[in-house]
Amino acid sequence: MNEKHPLSSLLAVFGRRNRLRLSLFPLVLVASFFPSHSAVGLSPIGAEDPGNDTYHSTASEVRLVFFATDEHNHNVQDIQKDDFAVVDDENVIREFRSFTPSASIKLDVIVLIDSSDSILPHFQQEITNVAQLISQSSWSPEDNVSAMSFAGLQAHLICSRNCRSSFTVDQVVPGGAATPLLDAVETATTLLSQRRQPDVWPVIILFSDGDDTISKASFKDVQERILATGAQIYAVDVRNSGRSRTQNATLQSLAADSGGRCVWLSEGANEIFSEVIDDLHSARVVTYALPQSNSAFHSIRILPTHNLNLQFRCRRGYYHPVAGLHQEDNP
Fold this sequence. Notes:
Order of helices and strands: HEEEEEHEEHHEHEHEHEEEE
CATH superfamily of the largest domain: von Willebrand factor, type A domain
Radius of gyration: 20 Å
Helix content: 25-40%
Number of helices: 7
Shape: globular
Mean pLDDT: 78
Number of domains: 2
CATH topology of the largest domain: Rossmann fold
Low-confidence stretches: 6-59, 322-331
Strand content: 25-35%
Strand order of the largest sheet: 7-6-5-8-9-10
């Protein structure tokens, strides 16, 4: 193996220490990348059946949703669990309890629609694409799809869980003067958290121009809420002017921090569906024992072990809810 391999240098520093630190924590409830109220489908460390990736236990675990792409940013479908390692704070994780495709996971999706004055020039295109996304996408029968709009002072729930059959474009009235973008994202993450269930993946698909004129919540507060909830954000930039893709820092950061991505309405509905829905279908979920850390916030990254052309995308960290959110531990 090449001596400059990114994983090799980490293993040299952390290898011996991690063998000692990968012992199980006390049996506590853990919020993770793929949040759940209890650990399911697991086994105690060392008790796995080499012929089956389904194990059973009640120990704490981290569930991490991630995406693998090649050097051309194309999704890679044939990823195996020995093709990567997870770096959780200073812990290099190579022993995984389970490794499954996202096709086996139910989605709880909130489509968040900006209807404020600032998007009026793009509203018709926006709402047409929203309707197509909700009604025509290849959702699983068990997926929940909700819709909220935001303008003026707050967000409004349009339909909950059953939007695929009940959503119509006339339910979204444009023209609210102010734009409470961050408050709306916070409201959506709170709703997802309140109805969180094991083995359900929370997702927000946000249609907006990225402007915020009236929110009470700060960007930092909303970032922490997203990471604590485990929601993944796909941001659709509704502006189709000539501005650079790097100019909308709010939408870019919300998406990137959560492990999602930012796409552009001007690329058309087919491209949006491809980027978002196909992305959800190509995800992988890996679980591993909660590693020891002195911080309430665990940073995360994924590194290739063999093919250096592989690139991985996931959320940038998670909070251990037992430790709580302390200012000194915030990212």
